[in-house]
Every structure is written in structure tokens, then in C-alpha cells.
Amino acid sequence: MNNVLQTLTSISSPPPPTPSSSTSFDSRKMAAERKRPISLMEQPVKTRRVENTSTFDYHFTQDLNNQDIEVTIHTLKMQRLGEYKQPVFISPMAKASLTASDYALFPLMDKVKDFLTGSSQVMLVLGDSGAGKSTFNRYLEHELWQGYNAGGRIPLFINLPALEKPKKELIAEQLRIYRFSETQIQDLEQRRQFVLICDGYDESQLISNLHTKNLLNRSGKRDTKMLITCRSQYLGPDYRIRFVPEAEGKYHQVADDLYMEAVIAPFSEEQIEVYVERYVPLEPRTWVKKDYMDKLKAIRNLMDLVKNPFLLTLCLEALPKVVEGRSDLSRLHITRVQLYDTFVQHWLSVHKRRLQDRELDNVNHIAFEGLLEVGFELSGIRFQQDLAAAIFREQEGRPVVNYAHKLDKNIWKAAFFSPDIEITLLRGASLLSRIGTQYRFPLGNSDEFGPQPRSDSSDIGDHPLSQRDLIAEPSIIHFLVERVQMDSNFRQQLLAFIEQSKTDDCAARAAANALTILVKAGLHFNGSDLRRIRVPGADLSDGQFDSAQLQEADLTGVNFTRSWIRQADLSKARMEGVQFGELPFLELGHRVTSIVYSTNGKFLAVGLGNGDINIYDTATWSRTKILRGHKDNITSIAYSSSSEQLLSGSHDCTLRLWNCQTGSTDFILEGHTESVKGVAFSPSSDQIASGSNDET
Q1: In angstroms, rounded to a whole number, what is the distance separating the alpha carbons of residues 597 and 604?
Q2: CA 129 to chain CA centroid, nearest Å
Q3: Taking Cα atoms as reference points, which of 156, 134, 289, 304 lies closest to residue 216?
Q4: Positive or negative, the Cα torsion across 326, 328, 330, 333?
Q5: H or E element in which residue 72 lies
Q6: DSSP string computed for 210-272
Q7: Does the pLDDT of residue 499 top 50, yes or no?
Q8: Positions of the WD repeats (predicted)?
Q9: Cβ neighbours of residue 546 closer than 8 Å, sequence gap 6 or more
Q10: What is the largest CA-CA distance in the chain?
Q11: 155 vs 55, residue with greater confidence
Q12: Structural contact between residues 681 and 641, judged by C-beta atoms closer than 8 angstroms
């Protein structure tokens, strides 16, 4: 299998170079927004951050113990303010919790200001990968430093994956990075309060309560504020115990009144449009705002995809290349994988042209010519693939790599971070960011662009898919599913892992991950010869295994929920802990006549024989609304593409258009003389259609 598969674990969204002034957005003041100067109460979208070979070293002389501590703090303040650069700011909206309504949104910064001025001690900010958690944190630190006054709370941005002992020495370890002396650290911890902006809880693989472990609930430290960001996917159902502070002097008794929470919401279409408007002028382009917006709206499902800030910035860079030479965009379907692949190619091509235009010395010129001979872009892709796989394998996915040449020149890190000329050129053209001796792929989590099998690995145990179970990593699974759907070679590699597991115990984990990915990609295994496969712990829910031969297979802990396994032969198979699941069911007092999921899958609408429509939250299966107005049974219902409107038809010969947020009727449509039998929205939701027994 000669196909080279992407294995990059993480990249950052890449807006263009920083302009001389920044801009901002407030959805409530759209008209005035375009005229006013930038507000600092806005969230930055992730920026392009590449390796900076002239890295900053936070160094304070050792004699500072005898100087005023405020002089030292002021020096740090000016350094942090000078480092912060962000070209475009978009104000993030948020909701109160994971189960809160998507329509009950508020400005995240307003909630953070309430947290900082109130009595709460911990605030957890959740969000999907690429939602803007890290850049919001950096922006918050920047704003707090701007407003800092002597003696006030000291803002500390803490990159949790980069620390060795965040469980017990969180403040001290961060201050050491800034080169404060031990005497200064002791003095600050005893006398001063902090705003701890803790970024990447999920990336650091933490499961402990940082506030409790660092004794921040003790007398003298209760005024310290801790804001923590984490991917929503990383948390289980009982996640609050990791973050809620303990009550002072009460062993293991939590203090809910000291805890706040918010979940970053996806961009609205209005926010997307404002971002595009401000993105276009930042560098010379052939496209204008209208070109981008027309393409975003014309390509099926693309607007939904780019509601993620990271994917939006990625899309704007890649879109001109993706649509090049295509006329009928309505038939085009774009995935995250396509955007990513196109962007990486574009990124490397730009860096190749920059190197070609530079006056390189003889040594660098020879190395560059050698890379051109084998293909600069291909070499760059392989370099990043290999590094991503090594991080996943050697560091269990922890994204930050520390490299000091004298200490690490004889281990795996040297293949990517040594001063070798060719390695330096490839590293400089990669998506890596660097702070001091720390390197990382700059998207907020190191696994987002997933470990993918490589055809050049001789030992199955060395494959990224053999390193850990991916069942609890939905973002990785989703990305690899898209790769399977695009790449037949990748699909064949995964099938080969499953086949290898029949005779090789070492292939079991890779096979379980592979079969999970293939099932999620929609492959059917009806009648397949799966005898003696080893796939313990695989998630095969919604799979199709009718008449499959699974004799003597190791199916320990496999999830078969909603799977088709009719006439499957499971004789002598290991079945300990197998889950067959049970679908949730709803008991209603009236006959169900129609049913439909919302476009985003978060709600279920159930039409009843008495004319009511019940709306259920699919996360909790609790009823959130009852839509009343029809006088007879509901015959058909449909959600708009945004899930913000619901269209219903009834035996009473009318149609109703409902506002999903308020539950009120926006329009009543009459005209049919007999029962309405079907209703539908157009793909853009600009039009509706209905069919009736009156033949209209």
C-alpha cells in the first residue's frame, strides 16, 4: 500500500498577517460595529503561528530579589503585551451548560467579567476542538494585563500540557518559566492573588481537581480566580467533580456556589459574514467578500462546517483552490479532510516560494535543492506526518515537545528538532509553533487531526492506531472516517489490520480501532468472514453484520448497540461485557402520527393525533416544548436547515411555521381543501413545499 496518509495531529487556524489595527464584532450592534474602533472585549480567532527562530527568553536577573517586586511584574506585563498579536477578533457567544438550549446564548466575556468580579473561584469554559478556547484565553490575559494596577491580581496564562507538576505546583512552575527566583515565588504566593488562565486541561491528560490539589481553597488564597478550558468531548458524565472547589474546612464537600460554567457556541452566519468582511482586506487577494460568501452558501453544508472558527479560517485559505475549475458548486461536497489537505499543500507551496526568493548561503542552498529534487511539498508533508505519529507514540498524545539539543540529541526528538540544515528547513516550513524550547502543532488539541496508519511501518505495535484506544476520541474518529470515505487505500489498510488480528495478538488494538472507524464510515460487513478476529472494546454500534462469520472472535467489551446481527454466527466467540443496548423510548398519551429529528440532531419533534407537537432534547430525552395550534392530527413535520424553524402539516388542512426558540407560530398557511400529507423545506430553507389530498 503505497499511499501516504496524513498523520498530522494538530494544526492552528491560519489567518493572514497581522494588520496595523484590529477589528471586532458585537452581534447586537451590527450597524455601529463597522464604524467604531476595535473593542478589547472581543475574542480572537486562532491565528497562524509558525516557528519563530528568534524565540523570547523570559529572563530576570538573579539580583531582582532585592528590587521592588512590582518592577519585575511590570517587566513581565510589558513582555506579554508585546508578544500578543491577533489580526481579527470575533466576540464569542456561549451557553450556560452542555445541556442548555442552543438558543439561550450570552456573550462569553460578559460571563467572565461576572466571574472575575463575583465570589466564584473556578470557571470552566468548554468547547469543541477549534472553537477558540486557547485564543480566548490569550486574549483574556492580554486584556487583564492592560488593566493591571500595582497590587492587583496577577494574570497568568498557563499552558497546562507544558507543565510537569500542575497538580500541586501550578503557580510556582509557571513563575519559574518566567524566571522568577524561588524567593520571589514564595513571596508572591504568600502575599498576592492571581487570575490563573489554565489552557488545555484535556491535552494535559489531567483527571484531578487543580483548584483543590493546589490548595487554592485555603485561607489566604480564596481570592485567586481559576479559569480552565477543556474540550467538551474529553469529559464524562461526572466531570464537575474535577472542577468544583471544595468547601474550606469541609473534607470532600463541594461548594457549588463557588463554581461557574460556560460552553462556547459555534459561529452564527452573521459572525461568519463579519469575519469574512474583515479577513479579505488583510492581504492582496483576487477574491472579494462576495466571492467567499457566495461559495460558502452555494456549497452543500459548508456554512454548517465553518461555524467552527478554526475550520472557517482554514476554509477561507483553501477555498479558492478547492473550487478552481468547478462550475456547479451545488453538487460539490467539502469535508474537513479536503480543506486540511488543500491548506497544507498551499502552506508548503508558499514557504517553498519564499525560500526560492531568498538569498540562501551555500549550505542552505544545497539542502534546499536536495528537497526540491524529491519534492518540497511531499517532504514537508512526510516530515509533519512522522512528527505527529512520533508525538502520539512517544508522548501518548501530549502535544508539547521539549527539546534541548545537548540533552536530547540521541533520542527520537533529534530527528525533528536537531540543527541539521535539512531538518531546520522542513521544520521552518511546517505548522509548528515554538516558545523557547517547546514545540507543538498549534491547534488547541494534539489529536484533532488524528493518528493514521502508515504503510512504511514494519511493526504493528509501532503504528499510531496501536498506541491507545480511540473510542473516547470522537474528533479523531470523525476525521479518520472522512479519510476512509475519500481514500480507498486507507480503507484497505484498515481492513488489513483486522485480517492481521486473526493470527497476531499484537494487532488487536489496531484492529479494534480500524473496525470502529470502518463501521462509522458506513462499511457493511454482512456475510463477511470475521472468524477469529481480535477487536476487544470496539464500538460497532449501528453496524451491519447480518450473517457475518464471527466464530472464535474476541469481542470482549464490544458495543453492538443498534447493530444488525441477524443470523450472525457467534459460536465460541468471547463475549464478556458485550453491550447490545436499548434505545430510549417515550410514552405519550396520544397516538404518534409523525416524527423527525432536527437537522443538528439535538432535538426530536413528535407530531400527535390531538394536533400537538412535542419537542424533546435528545441529550436528556426531556420534553422542552409543546407546540399547540393545529386542530387535528399532525400528518407531517420538517426542520429548516438551521433547526431554527419547524414546519408542520395537519389533517386540519393548514400548515404552520414555528419559531423553535420561542415555540410560537410565525405563520399559518391556508389554502388546501383537504388533509395536508407532506411538508418540506428547500435546501436553503428559503422556500417551503406542501402536498395534500386535494392534489395540490
Answers
A1: 4
A2: 1
A3: 156
A4: negative
A5: helix 69-83
A6: HHHHTTTTSTT-TT-EEEEEEEGGG--TTGGGGTSPBPTTSTT-B-GGGEEEEEEPPPPHHHH
A7: yes
A8: 627-668, 669-696
A9: 526, 527, 564, 565, 566, 567, 568
A10: 91
A11: 155
A12: yes
Q: Hey, what's the cell of 515?
A: 473496525
Spatial strand order of the sheet with 613-617 comes to: 592-597, 603-608, 613-617, 622-627
The Cα–Cα gap between 301 and 307 comes to: 11
What are the CA-CA distances from residue 634 to residues 6, 69, 170, 666 (Å)? 49, 71, 58, 17
What SS3 state is found at 65? Answer: helix
Contact 301, 333 (CB under 8 A): yes
Portion of the chain with pLDDT greater than 70, in percent: 86
Can you tell me the distance from the alpha carbon of 655 to that of 669, in angstroms, rounded to the nearest whole number? Answer: 5
The string of pLDDT tens digits covering residues 213-269 is: 898 877 766 689 999 999 887 777 778 889 999 877 665 677 888 999 999 999 999
Assign 122 to helix, strand or coil: strand
Residue in 475, 459, 492 with CA at minimum distance from that of residue 393: 459
C-alpha–C-alpha distance, residues 646 and 642, integer Å: 10
Looking at the predicted structure, is the pLDDT value of residue 427 above 70?
yes
**Residues 26, 28: Cα–Cα separation, whole Å:** 5
Whether the CB-CB separation of 245 and 255 falls below 8 Å is answered with yes
List, as one string, the DSSP characters of 173-226: HHHHHTT--HHHHHHHHHH--EEEEEE-TTTTT--S-HHHHTTTTSTT-TT-EE
What letter represents residue 206's amino acid? L
User: Is-contact 272 305, C-beta < 8 A?
Assistant: no
Q: Are strands 401-402 and 438-440 parallel, antiparallel or unpaired?
A: antiparallel
The CA distances from residue 193 to 76, 168, 188, 214, 223, in Å, are 16, 17, 8, 14, 6
Torsions phi, psi of 72, nearest 5? -65, -45
Residue type, 618: T
What pLDDT, in 10s, does the model give residues 92-144? 999 999 888 888 999 999 999 999 999 999 999 999 888 889 889 999 999 99
- Report which of 52, 28, 22 is spatially closest to residue 438, judged by C-alpha positions: 52
Burial class (CB in 10 A: 0-12, 13-18, 19+), 573: buried
- Cα–Cα distance between 50 and 218 in angstroms, integer? 41
Candidates 500, 499, 491; CA nearest to 461 is 500
Residues 496-511 as b/e (b if ≥16 CB within 10 A, e otherwise) read bbbbbbbeeeebbbbb
Residue 528 has a pLDDT of: 95
Whether the Cβ atoms of residue 440 and residue 200 lie closer than 8 Å to each other: no
The answer to whether the beta carbons of residues 334 and 314 sit under 8 Å apart is no
Sheet strands (E) in 389-462: 401-402, 433-435, 438-440
Higher-confidence position of 235 and 4 = 235
pLDDT tens digits for 552-584?
999 999 999 989 999 999 999 999 999 987 666
For 204-216, give the DSSP string: TT--S-HHHHTTT
| DSSP-assigned beta bridge partners for residue 95 | 263
DSSP string, 413-425: THHHHS--HHHHH
Beta pairing, strands 93-95 & 106-107: antiparallel
Report yes or no: 444 and 436 within 8 Å, Cβ to Cβ: no
Q: State pLDDT tens for residues 260-319.
A: 999 999 999 999 999 999 999 998 999 999 999 999 998 888 898 899 898 898 889 888
Distances, alpha carbon 320 to alpha carbons 57, 317, 325, in Å: 39, 7, 10
Q: pTM of the prediction?
A: 0.63
Residues in the chain: 696
